[in-house]
Amino acid sequence: MLDFLSEYWSVVFPSAVGIAGIYLLLPRLEKRYRILGAIIGAAGLLLAGLLLIGSEAILAETILFYSFSGLAILGGGLMLSQHNPVHAALSFALVVLSTCGLFLLLAAPFLMAATIIVYAGAIVVTFLFVIMLAQQAGMTSADQRSREPFLACLAGFVLLIALLSVLQKTYSSTALDALMAKVDAIARAKTEVDLVRILGRPAQNPAGNRSLPLVDEVKKVLPSFDQDKVENANGYWNERPMNVAKMAALFQDIQKHVEHEFQLGSLQPPANLPLSPFSGPPPNKEGPHQLPAHNVAGLGRSLFTDYLLAVELAGTLLLVASIGAIAIAARQREGLR
Amino acid sequence: MSPVSLHNFLAVGAILFALGAVGFLARRNLIIMFLSAEMMLQGVALNLVAFARYRGNLQGQAFTLFILTVAACEAAIALALILMLFRRRKSLDVSLWQDLREPELEPIVDEEPLPAPPEPVELPRLTPAGPEPEHPREEASHV
Amino acid sequence: MFDDPRNYLWLIPVLPLLASVVTALAGPRWLKQQSHWPCIIAAVCSCFLSFLVLRAVNSGFEDFKRYYMWFEAGNVSVGFTLGADGLTAVMLVTVTFVGSLIAIYSIGYMHHDPGYARYFAEISLFLFSMTGLVLAENFILLYAFWEGVGLCSYLLIGYYYARPSAAAAARKAFLVTRLGDIGLFIGILLLWSVSDHSLDFSRILNNATEIDPGMRIAICLLLFSGAVGKSAQFPLHVWLPDAMEGPSPVSALIHAATMVTAGVYLVARCTPLFGVTPEAQLVVATIGGFTAFLASLIALTQSDLKRVLAYSTISQLGYMFLALGSGTRNEGHFLAGLAVTAAIFHLFTHAFFKALLFLSAGSVMHAMGNVIDMRRFGGLRHVLKKTHWLFLCGAGALSGFPVIFSGFWSKDEILADVLEAGSPGSVGSFAYLFLFCLGMLTAGLTAFYTFRAYFLTFWGEVRIPHEAGEHPHESPPVMLVPMAILAVGAVALGLILGPTGVFNDFLQEHWMVSAFPHLLPFKEHHHNLLLMVASGVLALVGIGLAWWMYVRKPASASELAQALPGIYGLSRNKFYLDEIYNAFIVKPLAGFAQVLRVIDLYVVDGIVDLIAQVPRWLGMLARPVQNGLVQFYALLMMLGLAGFLLSVLMR
Fold first, then answer.
1. Residue B74: exposed, middle, or buried by beta-carbon count in 10 A (0-12, 13-18, 19+)?
2. Which residue of A has its CA nearest to C643?
3. Contact C105/C479 with Cβ under 8 angstroms?
4. Any CB–CB contact under 8 A between A186 and chain B?
5. Helix intervals (H) in C573-604
6. Quick one: angle between helices C36-58 and C11-26, nearest 10?
7. Hey, which of A14, A264, C295, C573 has its CA 20 to 30 A from A176?
8. Does A155 sit within 8 Å of C632, measured CB to CB?
9. Of C626, C629, C638, the CB nearest to B95
10. Which pLDDT score, from 0 to 100, does residue C207 have?
11. Taking CB atoms and an 8 Å cutoff, what residues of chain C touch B107?
């Protein structure tokens, strides 16, 4: 337990602070904790931003990502703490809009539009209609209290740290940052002098051979990268004059490998599995993968080839759901009750 | 590496999901419970679209479209049911529906009553000065 | 086929058994008033076959046969072995002959009773058990049939089961005889342990002298305790007077002629064992003599005719045991042969005259509308002429009227044997002498109370109780003819078989010689004329006294009763034995049973209920989880998931 905490403290601590804030923000009879809850919640959010998503470069992408995700989480917190259901529905609309912004960042413009139209346009409006139809007289006790706030927050907290710790364990490359900085520098090196400065001299390694220390480190930390290819670096070093381009290319390969692995994780479908190419390049094929430029056309092709049956079923589901909703909620004639 | 990579988006999705779970478990208003459930779905959709982007594949986005469809159907039916429940008890409190409990258990009711709404303040009324004027008939029609 | 008795020996018990089954199944529905036919046919056939067996034994047949292996378990091997020798033949003839006559009598007596078929089924079952008992050749089979006759006695005493007194009497009979049966069973077990794990008569009784003397005394006393229960000796005699709640033919068959003689048969059969255990024999004789005296004292003042006869049965059985216990050693001779012969002869004659007396009492009851209290009727010799003469034959035989009645000869033989045992030179002679005096006194009392009952019933002014209806009528021929046959037996058989020695010789030759050769040589039987005269005079004196007190001067009886209130009270109330038993045995046991009942209800049931409550409590612990709130359920699901994830993460 303790080593779990020490390993994942950067996940547990912000989550704890954030959930504590949420606990204080949940509706309760005494009103004095709300400000405190808001402050704690905001602190948690900031901590999370700093610790979990810490990065060096400030790009437009980063700013947009931070603002959209911060807005989404703020909207979620707002929704939980509102007494008035109308305010809660409007906060939910805020959440949806922020998520759509994130969709746009993720190169899914059609989904952004569809979500705004369907979710924020139709579903939230339907919720507001139902709130209008189901008006309660004044503020009821149901809105003022919450059911088991502590246990619910505990459950949410555990769920959150479970998810986030798994994510960290899979994707966290901070252990590699120093190494990757050097690799990055070599990949961008242009002259032999830079290479010599960064790589240093070969030394005796525990296996008994003479090898560059960086090569050993790469071999140790990245066992999934082709070990023989890394050995080539030693060979390139011994050449006079040093082949800068090849050395740089090798380290660019290492960079791409790390990027690939730490972006998508180490669990991949086996290479001999025939996966359909209609939705884009199959995941088990090598090579850079990028989304098609025409999002709507690609989505349409994917839906009507790979997911045709699902589309038809979804249509049927919509039909049935609409008939069902009408049948359930139709107002009965008073005499037949 | 780009500063914003896959796991950042996945973390945001996880946080939205957890917040939605807490809201579903803690709030007692039926509408807000379902809104929290929809927020959980949003987190999941974010997850899927992030994976689609980073794998270069449209499967995630297609799946998100289906999530959208199902969420719409679910909202329709759920709101119809909420309307029916409201018509029975004239309240959106989910704690009123405890009939499936064990027969010998007592129903769980809120112990402390709500604080009473503030008494409407009796504002002083001035005595009318002079007789009430006649209201012409045309003015009444503009109301 | 009829030459070899082994071919038809098994039919003697099986025919009544079949009749019982047929009557039980087909009687109530189809046979109804004809239900007596299977029983009569079976009884008469068994009687015929018994006579054939008698003839075969007389001509020297000695063998027996194992018909079926019942069970074998380790050291014990028990089979359905039936065999016949002299003793068995005599018993068989007695049982089946008297039984057939009583069954024929029952046709008339039970004519209007709704349980007609049940009665004959039970009678047939009884005949099966009794014949099986005397035919059995090993102790386990004997014990099985012993219990069978006990069961039939219970069924038949409680025949009028709707009457609480009858049901209680049946229960009393069963329980009291059960006390004796326990001793019998323990005795059988001891026999099994000392006799090399065999229970056949031949094996055990032939090697009787090899048993350790202390063990022999114990075994004999235990076997005798079974006889005490079944044959109603003191202290287990209390069931027999109450057993008169059953119909009169039942009293005649079971409680006069056959079942109560099973004890006598058992002790007679075990004579090889008793004969070499003088201490046990002394105990047998003492109890027999004491019982005879006690019962005759009680019979002096009873007002119920059947009770008088019941107590006289107890008394006569006491005589038989007195005889059986007199078989001691006397100066190199063994008196066992004489003693046993006397007892069996008395059993034989007693069967006839006691059955006759009970059937006559039944006839009186039949005419008087089921009234049997002698104070309510009188002078019946003018009303029931034939019954009167038949009763007189039986009364004369019971009281030992000299020469012409059989009871005189058999009782005289017994008294002669007791006197012989009391002569100097035999073991325990002083005790036997005392018992002899007691026996003579009892003979006088017997004559007195028998004729008291006779005079009270049949002499004096004619009084008819109102239950008798308009005109009390004599019994139909179907009832009178068996009684007449029994009367002939009561009168003539004694004279024919007794003094001529036919009976004694038969038993001696065909049974005793092969059964207990170690008790040879037997003392030769000679007639003690002085004793015969003395006992005859005693009988006449008793009869005369009864005539004086109840015919000549009827008031003298009540005057005597008022003069001696203490003794009268003791005799009338059966020496308060029932009350003593009730206070000292029945009530403590009932209290103990109540205690056990309380323990069973509260402790045993309490523990079981407590164990049954445990799942309920566990359920109550788990029940609050189901409180009907949807969010609570979702919370539990989420917590479960959270726990699961945590455990996976931290592994």
1. middle
2. A158
3. yes
4. no
5. 577-581, 587-598
6. 180
7. A14
8. no
9. C629
10. 77
11. 628
A31 touches chain C (CB under 8 A): no
Picking from A159, A160, A165, A170 by the largest number of C CB atoms within 10 A of its own CB, the best residue to mutate is A159
Look at C330 and C188; give whichever has higher pLDDT.
C188
% residues pLDDT > 70 (chain C) = 96
pLDDT per residue as tens digits for the range C108-147 = 998 888 888 999 999 999 999 999 999 988 898 999 999 9
How many of the other CB atoms lie within 10 Å of CB of B117?
8
Q: Identify the residue whose tokens are 């004044």.
A: A138
Distance CA A13, CA C343 (A): 111
Q: Which residues pair with C463 in a beta bridge?
A: C378
CA distance A220 to A165: 24
Structure tokens at C146: 């012993």
Q: Which two tokens stand for residue C335?
A: 């008196």
Which two tokens mark C292? 């005879």
CA A132-A137-B35 angle, 5° bins:
45
Q: Say which residues have a Cβ less than 8 Å from residue B90's Cβ, sequence separation at least 6.
A: A136
CB contact at 8 A, C182 and C122: no
Cβ-contact C419, C326 below 8 angstroms: no
Cβ–Cβ of A142/B29 closer than 8 Å? yes
Q: HSE of C431 in the Cβ direction (CA atoms, 13 Å)? A: 19
DSSP string, B81-92: HHHHHHHHHS--
Mean pLDDT across chain C:
87
Nearest-CA distance A145 → chain C (Å)? 13
This prediction has a pTM of 0.66
Tens digits of residue pLDDT in C283-308: 999 999 999 999 999 998 888 999 99
Per-residue pLDDT tens digits for A190-208: 777 777 777 777 776 666 6
SS3 C10: coil
Lookup result for tokens 């047929």: C22
Instruction: Give C333's strand partners.
Output: C330
C608 CA to chain B: closest CA distance, Å?
25
Residue A140 has pLDDT above 70, yes or no: no
Write the pLDDT tens digit of every residue in C384-393: 888 999 999 9
Chain A residues 3-22 within an 8 A CB cutoff of chain C = 4
Q: What is the pLDDT of residues C403-412, one digit of tens each?
A: 778 888 888 8
Burial of C633 (0-12, 13-18, 19+ CB in 10 A): middle
User: C332: pLDDT confidence band, cut at 50, 70 and 90?
Assistant: low
Q: Which residues contact A98 (CB under 8 A, 6 or more apart)?
A: A68, A69, A71, A72, A75
pLDDT of residue C501 exceeding 60, the answer is yes
Select the more confidently predicted residue: A270 or A150: A150
Segment A201-220 mean pLDDT: 71
Nearest-CA residue of chain A relative to B6? A263
Cis before C235? omega within 30? yes
C590 CB neighbour count, 10 Å cutoff: 11
CB-based contact C444:C364 (threshold 8 Å): no
Cα–chain center distance at C7: 30
Owner of token pair 């009907």: C628
CA distance C624 to chain A (A): 15
Report chain C's C-alpha Rg in angstroms.
Answer: 30
A71 interfaces chain B, CB cutoff of 8 Å: no
**A-B C-beta contacts closer than 8 Å:** 299
Q: Which amino acid is at C196?
A: D
- Comparing CA positions, the residue from A88, A330, A135 lying closest to residue B91 is A135
Give how far C584 is from chain B: nearest CA, Å.
Answer: 55
- Exposure string (b/e) for C159-186, b if CB count within 10 Å is 16 or more? bbeeeeebbebbebbbebbeebbebbbb
Cα(C441)–Cα(C326) distance, integer angstroms: 18
Cβ(C93)–Cβ(C56) under 8 Å?
no
